[in-house]
Amino acid sequence: LAKTTQPISMDSYEGQEVNITCSHNNIATNDYITWYQQFPSQGPRFIIQGYKTKVTNEVASLFIPADRKSSTLSLPRVSLSDTAVYYCLVGQWGKLIFGQGTELSVKP
Amino acid sequence: EAGVAQSPRYKIIEKRQSVAFWCNPISGHATLYWYQQILGQGPKLLIQFQNNGVVDDSQLPKDRFSAERLKGVDSTLKIQPAKLEDSAVYLCASSTGSMGTEAFFGQGTRLTVV
């Protein structure tokens, strides 16, 4: 299984754009890249999933370069409620292996 | 659409006692997962079911943990006997079983072993 590496923590301010980069050098050909968000005392919540190039939904954008060895989750104009842990996962056919995640702290 | 339901929400037991957690996945979801999340860590996969069958239980401590998924729907996770280090949040998730990795999680059961 491809191992992912992402920053342990990040700080931001309200209204800023936040970019969290995940490294996955050993990604397999058929692997998808998926990001989850987790608030305290809740289960992880699916944010976005992509295979290549760029994916955008109402919550975030996911940028994947051509070599697919990294990916960047972009959160536009964050608010205090975006303070959470963000996990980058790489896998296929429902294989969900979580790493340490990135603890994002949004300040006023 | 109803989400993944888990019960109980909280449980406190003494070490060496037994405990069971229940999960009802989203209707029609073929894949069901149980995760253990220790405070400050990412969720750790304990067992993954595809319908009735076990796909992956490589990290399930089989001497004390057991799980079943009857009729490919509901699932129970049991710990017997519990140890202090089993204190954690136990998360259940389900997915359609497609090629990707989109899953839906329940709120979890917080277990405290004293």
Q: Which blocks of ≥5 consecutive residues of chain B have pLDDT under 50?
A: none
Radius of gyration of chain B: 13 Å
Low-confidence stretches of chain A: none
For the termini of chain A, the CA-CA separation is 39 Å
Question: How would you classify the helix and strand content of chain A by structural class?
Answer: mainly beta
Order of helices and strands of chain B: EEEEEEEEEEE
Would you tell me the structural class of the helices and strands of chain B? mainly beta
Supply Rg of chain A: 13 Å
Number of strands of chain B: 11
Give a quick account of the main beta sheet of chain A: strands, pairing sense, barrel closure.
5 strands, mixed
Report helical residue fraction of chain B: under 10%
Calculate the mean pLDDT score of chain B and round it.
95
Largest sheet of chain B: 7 strands, mixed
Total strands of chain A? 9
Largest interface: A-B, 24 and 29 residues
Tell me the series of helices and strands of chain A, N- to C-terminal.
Answer: EEEEEEEEE
What brief labels describe this structure?
heterodimer, A: 108 residues, 9 strands, 48% strand, globular, B: 114 residues, four-stranded antiparallel sheet, 0% helix
Structure description:
The complex is a heterodimer of chains A (108) and B (114). Chain A has 108 residues and is an all-beta fold. Chain A is 0% helix and 48% strand. Chain A contains no helices and nine strands. In chain A, the strands form two sheets. Chain A has a five-stranded mixed beta sheet with strand order 1-9-8-3-4, with no helix packed on it. In chain A, strands 2-7-6-5 form a four-stranded antiparallel beta sheet, with no helix packed on it. Chain A is globular, with a radius of gyration of 13 Å. The N and C termini of chain A lie far apart (39 Å). Chain A has strands at residues 9-13, 18-23, 32-38, 45-50, 53-56, 61-64, 70-75, 84-91, 102-107. Chain B is mostly beta strands. Helices cover 0% and strands 49% of the residues of chain B. Chain B has strands at 5-7, 10-13, 19-24, 31-37, 44-50, 53-56, 65-69, 75-79, 88-95, 104-105, 109-113. In chain B, the strands form two sheets. In chain B, strands 2, 4, 5, 6, 9, 10 and 11 form a seven-stranded mixed beta sheet that branches. A four-stranded antiparallel beta sheet of chain B has the order 1-3-8-7, with no helix packed on it. Chain B is globular, with a radius of gyration of 13 Å. The termini of chain B are far apart. The mean pLDDT of chain B is 95.
